[in-house]
């Protein structure tokens, strides 16, 4: 009977110690995840501010160029270069807007994961 009890006790002690190591590792990973989420959130918020400024500038440029091209169209003086530049500016603005929206979604997702 002793031959069975001693190895059984040794195994129980080893597995109990292993669980605390595992629990510590899980807690460390959770803490690292929280820290990583905070870091990513700050980076995304900073990038969102920059992108917002770029988007405002691009919208103003597009509005001014659109008015100018519309005036030239009415006077039948619009050139191919003006129309191409207007199209490129629209593409640039749309690209910045897409980046802005993606960053906003990333921030919302991080907030959602933090609240879970």
Number of strands: 0
Mean pLDDT metric: 89
The oligomeric state of the chains shown is: single chain
Silhouette: rod-shaped
Give start-end ranges of low-pLDDT stretches: none
Count of helical stretches = 2
Report the major sheet.
none
Taken in chain order, the helices and strands follow as HH
Give the C-alpha Rg.
Answer: 30 Å
Helix content: over 70%
The amount of beta strand, in percent, is: under 5%
SS-based class = mainly alpha
Instruction: Quote the distance from N terminus to C terminus.
Output: 50 Å
Coiled coil: 27-89
Protein name: Lipoprotein
Keywords: Coiled coil
Please give a quick description of this structure.
The chain is mainly α. The protein has helices at residues 2-74, 80-115.
Topology:
Blueprint: H1 2-74, H2 80-115
Helix pairs in contact: 1-2
List the main descriptive attributes of the protein structure presented here.
116 residues; mainly alpha; 2 helices
Report on the architecture of this protein.
The protein has 116 residues and is mainly alpha-helical. The protein is 94% helix and 0% strand. The chain has 2 helices and no strands. The longest helix is centred in the N-terminal third of the chain and has 73 residues. The chain starts with a helix and ends with a helix. The mean pLDDT is 89. It comes from Xylanibacter ruminicola. This is Lipoprotein. Keywords: Coiled coil.
């Amino acid at each position: 009977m002793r031959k069975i009890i001693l190895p059984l006790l040794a195994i129980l002690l080893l597995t109990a110690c292993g669980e605390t190591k595992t629990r510590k590792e899980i807690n460390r990973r959770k803490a690292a995840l929280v820290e990583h989420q905070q870091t990513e959130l700050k980076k995304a918020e900073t990038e969102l501010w920059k992108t917002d400024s770029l988007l405002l500038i691009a919208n103003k440029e597009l509005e001014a160029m659109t008015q100018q091209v519309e005036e030239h169209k009415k006077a039948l003086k619009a050139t191919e270069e003006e129309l191409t530049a207007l199209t490129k500016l629209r593409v640039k603005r749309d690209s910045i807007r897409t980046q802005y929206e993606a960053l906003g979604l990333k921030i919302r997702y991080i907030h959602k994961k933090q609240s879970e």
